[in-house]
Write a structure and sequence with these properties.
42% helix, alpha+beta, transmembrane, OB fold (Dihydrolipoamide Acetyltransferase, E2P), Membrane_assoc_protease, 5-stranded mixed β-barrel, 4 helices
Length: 164
């Protein structure tokens, strides 16, 4: 008798658990979905009289749906957008808002909408430019642990003068 016609529901269950165990050693999230689909096929084949061909088709379709759902909906939620652990140069060009006005004798504070290099708020100074609380600023340089910022208005004016 052909071996394909001798597949029992527990075969799908064993295949599913083997694929789940493989996922523990190969963290790609690929075999996880194939294993989950195999476990669902095992449950369906125990509950319903399904031919082996239909079982394989169900397994393939479920695996494809799970993979698509992973890459389209779930994985984008887990992306780290903080840039933590990267060099300081990644912060140059980022825009934030002044929450404590910098003075000539003391530094101010700028807040970013998402954490940049591990922090949402940074100590900042300007190069003689006046900025007020609530102004949008862009990071132009880094000196030690302080950011040098410039107002978005002055940056726009500089960009317009360069284009002329």
């Amino acid at each position: 008798m052909d071996i394909l016609w001798m597949i029992e529901p527990w075969h799908w269950l064993v295949l599913g658990f083997i694929l789940l165990i493989v996922e523990m050693f190969v963290p790609t999230f690929a075999s996880l979905w194939f294993g989950a689909a195999a476990i669902i096929v095992a449950a369906l084949s125990w509950l319903l009289p399904i031919s082996v061909f239909v079982q394989v088709i169900i397994w393939l379709v479920l695996s494809a749906i799970f993979l698509l759902a992973w890459f389209k909906f779930i994985k984008p939620l887990s992306i780290d957008r903080t840039k933590a652990g990267l060099g300081g140069s990644v912060i140059i060009g980022e825009t934030g808002m002044i929450i404590v006005q910098p003075q000539p004798d003391r530094a101010g504070t700028v807040r970013f909408s998402v954490p940049i290099v591990g922090a949402a708020e940074w100590v900042c100074r300007t190069r003689g430019e006046q900025v007020a609380v609530g102004d949008r600023v862009v990071v132009t340089d880094i000196v030690g642990n302080e950011l040098i910022v410039s107002s978005m208005k002055s940056q726009a004016a500089m960009n317009n003068s360069k284009q002329i």
